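Hey, can you fold this?
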Amino acid sequence: MKQRHRLIAPMPPGPLDVVGDVHGELGLLERLLERLGRDPVTLGPTGRRAAGRSLVFVGDLVDRGPDSVGVLRRVMPAVRERRAFCVMGNHELNALRVPDAVDHSHWFHGGGVGPPTMPQAVLPPEQRADVLGFFRSLPLALEREDVVAVHACWDAASADRLRGADDPVDAWRRAHDLTPPGGWEAAVDPADPAAADARLVRRNANPVRRLTAGPEHRAPHPFRIHDRVFRDARTPWWDAYAGPPYVIFGHYWRRPGETPAVGDPALPFGGHGPTDELGLPGSDGRRSAMCIDHCAGASWQRRPPAVAAGVAPIATGLSAFRWPERELVFVPGA
């Protein structure tokens, strides 16, 4: 009988070590695990610091970094044996939806030599089905009364729509197909700005996308990130979130050592430093959310192939958040 997985699953009880987006950076993960008092191979506790604590990942284990395969070889058995827990990130979801996509994912599809500035270990083809099965088994959120772990955004209404669902791709497609006759694009002139607005509405209304990629809004003006121009900006949903529960999430890059300016559409943490807690104060006067993506996925920019190609690197690192201590543990990128 096929095992049934819930997309909104219970968080394990007790203290937590919640790890941010790893993005194939096995070396960073090993260093962080050691800082947390854990074995870098088995992920298990090595002393009192990690004893009695559950290890949780907020997704985006893969893509961009040099060894997504190595990361999965550590994390997959630990999650399957319930020695660790993991929620689905948008990169795991993308692998399920478009398994032959090539953006940052040479590690999975192989073929050729891969991006010269982003060398990656390649997964043997005979292991692809097992990896996709693991991705499909991941919940979109882990929740309990005091704390939630989710990849990008905690939205209670979206979570409620997904309760009882057990397949993330089917849930995505069902939401995607709830459109006017002919689809959103057929309802308007493609040259009309309303066409873009319709696509934005559909993306924001998809509960799977909302939890794995977060809501977006039309930016006041187009903006550029690297060589791409964007018209929709990521919405800082945490600015209006008061909890409970406390939300620990990743997805949104927080550049170590930088405090973005308010109003920059490319950086949604305007006015917040990279280690600040987020959200509105709760009844105890303390904030109610924390983003722990500290740009590990950009570490490739700092390596010789990218530097030789003229890529301008940013500061990077990998972090974990200890709950209920609200302690951030950070290891800098090389």
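Oh, and this one too while you're at it.
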Amino acid sequence: DDEACAALGILVNKIRKQLANTLEGGFRVVATSNAEVLQVALSRARALVVMLSTTTMSSPDQLRVIALAMSMAQKESGPLVVPMYLPGFELPGDSYFTRTLPLVWPGPCDDKVGPLIRALFGIIAVQFHTGASDEMLGVLAGQVLARIP
């Protein structure tokens, strides 16, 4: 969505110089729903920043990325996952997982999907307030950068 794209632009602008100096190969923004491309990208990544916006929990593509990343992280075969809450994001309650997720999930929603998505919310998130001052945005971006191994 528009807010996530704007937040991505802010984050990249704030950390690109530091990343260029510390990461071999730089960083990539992957925007695809192709499962094979996602799996390869995640298997090569050191970290995945998941931008959680008002539309995340109703986006099959975003949910698929979250579930795949958390599955790989649990098997220690994927990147470190860094959740980033954007303004307006609300944590899903139990009713989301029992009623809404099965309707939103692309295809059959087995018993493993809900726990994988819930696992993301067990990770301390960076609260990324896009309306904050430039200085504060730098501090928040630094919190994301500090988590990247």
